[in-house]
Task: structure prediction
Amino acid sequence: MSKEYKRSDGRKNNQLRPIVAKVGIIPNADGSAMFAFGGTIAIAAVYGPRQLHPQHMQNPSTGILRCNYDLLSFSVYDRKKPGPSRRSNEISKVTEWALAPALDLKEFPAQVVDVQIYILQADAGTRTAGINAASMALAHAGLPMKDLICSVAVGKNDKHLIVDLTKEEEDYEEGEGATDFAMAKLANHDELTLLQMDGKIQPNIVKDALKLGSEACKEVYEAQKKALKEVVNGGEEK
Amino acid sequence: MSYIENENNEAHEAIRDSEDSSDFMKRFVVVPGETIIEGEDYLPGEGTRREGSKIVSSKFGLAEIAGRVIKLIPIFGAFIARRNNVVIGRVTDITYSGWLVDIDSSTSGFLPIDESPRFVNRNEMDQYLAIGDVIAAKIWSVKTKGIDLTLKGKGLGKLEGGFIFRVIPSRVPRVIGREGSMVNLIKDKTGCNITVGQNGWIWIRGETIDAEIKARKAIELVSEKVHVGGLTDKIEAWFMEEK
Amino acid sequence: MSGMEMSNLTIETLDRMFADKKRFDSRGLLDLRNIEVTYDVSDKAEGSARIKMGKTDVVVGIKLQVGEPYPDSPEKGNLMVSGDLLPLASPRFESGPPGFEAIELPRLVDRAIRESGMIKFEDLVIEKGKVWTIIIDIYPINDDGNLIDASTICALAALKSAVFPEIDKEGKIDYEKKTDKKLPLSKDILPLSFSFFKLGNSIILDPTREEEEACESRVTFGISKWNSQYMLNSCQKKGEAPFTSEEIEKIMEIITKKFDEVSKKLKNFL
Result:
């Protein structure tokens, strides 16, 4: 694994794109936030805990977390037709699995916490930006949480491990090609809640990839904390 | 996550302290998972938990270190229904045995026919309370299936006239103030009847429309200021300016 | 935020308030909230804008596609207005197939813009059998009332800022390359929408969500100016409570003044 690798936007291997994080952007929601990695912008709203209808879907022993992720039609160059796609269905589900470990859903039997994530502008890493926004929105909604969830995409271009891939880097074709490894973890605990990978990566360097991702997650955590605290420290909210 | 059970008074105590500005008390914003303090002697209050030698926050809010029990004051979040809470709700349906009431909680509210303050005939239920009517009720039992309400008690019953609006539930202690000081100030200055529900819904009825508008504005101002001390004085000053 | 429905006593109080020409936020019955328009919501769109009208927040994006003209208008390009009431924006909106409100919103914006004649459809022809379709996508981000009027202004702003993407030598669109050629829009025509809401005998403009829920009916007009002449382009009444002809005449007097007022405000943004 070479130490010197020139990324097309000049970033170092372990450097994230500029992060923008803001909390409280949707007054109607119980919690809301926006999170951007460079040109990828996600917004999230949390409604709940609230009653779950229809009644037969209620689980008397635990609450449910419901996530809905989607791209706005003009967030991508080739307009996406409105309505759920298979891809958005899958991402909705893995997002739910990525966020649920942070919540104690047994505190809300028969109730639901709804998380809505939309991508305003997509430039790779949309699911990771979405998870980061949703994590802030859940905290903003006052839900009891074990920790915040931080997410980044680690990747590989040929033999070089890099963090927060752009679309161009996802399409890299030389050598071993591109590997995209999206991960999420509890900020202060060694618990990985999202693991998704496509590409070619040797088993013995997975631990390096995870280490790179975990380090990068620290920067995400700092941005999330700052955005949440800014909502209060102004003296006024929203 | 285990914590020491706390009554609703916790948030009221927080208000008392903020008006006093004690030196021994430290209060700062924390996010879930953040360490509040380290030490074996401390006890985790509601909204916090112990992790090894640390007391860690379980919610986004204001951590307060004043004594052995570490407290977490929520700033945002949905209403958590508790026994004896006074809430304001809207009737959504009438069944054989009572009225279904929306109290803006994650579990629905129910007012049994026997809990109305006077006798109501089963075929005249909608004449006492119709769909869309508003009540000030007390929670007398909280179950997974639903929340049971009663109208028996002082200050409870069907509300007539005026209007209702919502503030974030965790701001209600601010709106009420230490021993009612804030809400009483607003009542004095506007001459309005005001009932504050723990669920964030507030009822105002005044002699004039202007008084009602002013009372609402004052309450909204108070509920938006999260981390500000000396609020009673500031609102007094605001009323002076508004003349 | 609450999904609690409007209560009887609040409706009665709002009725009295409006009759006394008063509103909670101290506006006049026909006063609009503060309008703020920004651009570049998405650089993947050919044009995009975001409007904040009070707490109402809407984003609109423009995408251009190449296709065949409709058989009954071979010399013209096309317009499609789409959108969704995302559950993000309000506890009232649910996931799933669009309800009536979600269907109505893009349709009303479509008619206000299309019927005004602002878009020069003949200039959307690339060659015989090949035309541009302009697609307008509307997404409310926070619903605090008056989504239709806010969405129309936002769509207008997005259209005015939009540019054509490049077409490469093989005739394929390269969305990653934007030209600096703006859409063929008539500079003189500015389509706006005004929704007049009625409660009791009072008529108001630009309600908050609370006010809108208390109102009994609404009539929305699309209006533009054409050859220095005010022109109504579309109209739709919603709700069961009727309007009297006197009320409609009064609205006709008010709407031209409002059109001038809002056009002037928007000059800073467009």
